[in-house]
Amino acid sequence: MSNLSVLLPVAATSDTDGLRRAHRSVTEQTSPPDEIVLVTNQPLTDDVETAINNIVAMNSNSRHEHIPGARGLGGVLESGLEKCSKPFVARMDADDIAKPERFADQLVVLRETGADIVGSHLAEFRDDPERPERIRKVPVTHDEIAGWMPWRCPMNHPTVMFDREAVLDVGGYRTFPMMEDWDLWARCLAAGLRFRNLDRVLVHAKICGLNDRRGGLDYVRAEVRMAQELRKLGISSRRDMIRHLSLRGPPRLLPPKLRERVYQRFAR
């Protein structure tokens, strides 16, 4: 047994082909998980509901948890995390593709190095997973990850695997719109948890309209909230806070095409 749960939130309008592909990449792991928890919180389209029902019917280790009271992505993830029953939890999104060795490699790190949270680089694609548009590289060692934390999220959320109890002990996911993952990692770092990223791509993620979603005043406000939280946790200095807001705030207000160029350049 791998002692591993997979937490896989599914949006009401998820692409069903992508969902089936994501689920298949999990079941075909060299070290398959003990359970796959598909979590929803909204009324589903008929196609999505049918796809989930078929997945659950054909895979005894998969189940659907519908939690209508969960608010936003943070609420869905926290509710889903509480439903996971195994010591280790891997994150996946409904349009991600995990490489076959992903879970095996990450479990070794969690079991043998003292790390509590482990991720990897992420390949982003639009049409063909084998022809990614860019690689989102992240720092590898704990010290490097801690060095990024004050001004840039150092973990690719769809790639992470973590110790369930350790993450729940710091409060788990919470409602923190647009920054749910960075907020969690910051609190984990402040609590003394140890991080690691593997220096290779273990997940391919489909992108579609991502840069439009990452722009606008709501995202600027989210950056301000995140900078304030980092300061409150003692992770960032006043200088770090200024750097964070000056580097990350203005691009949020750029026109989409220009923001696309910035995103292509900095891959974040």
TrEMBL record:
Keywords, alphabetical: Glycosyltransferase, Plasmid, Transferase
Gene3D superfamilies: Spore Coat Polysaccharide Biosynthesis Protein SpsA, Chain A
Keyword Oxidoreductase among UniProt keywords: no
Glycosyltransferase 2-like domain boundaries: 17-164
Listed GO MF terms: glycosyltransferase activity
Keyword Lipid metabolism carried by entry: no
Pfam families: Glycos_transf_2
Family: Belongs to the glycosyltransferase 2 family.
The protein's name in its UniProt record: Glycosyl transferase family 2
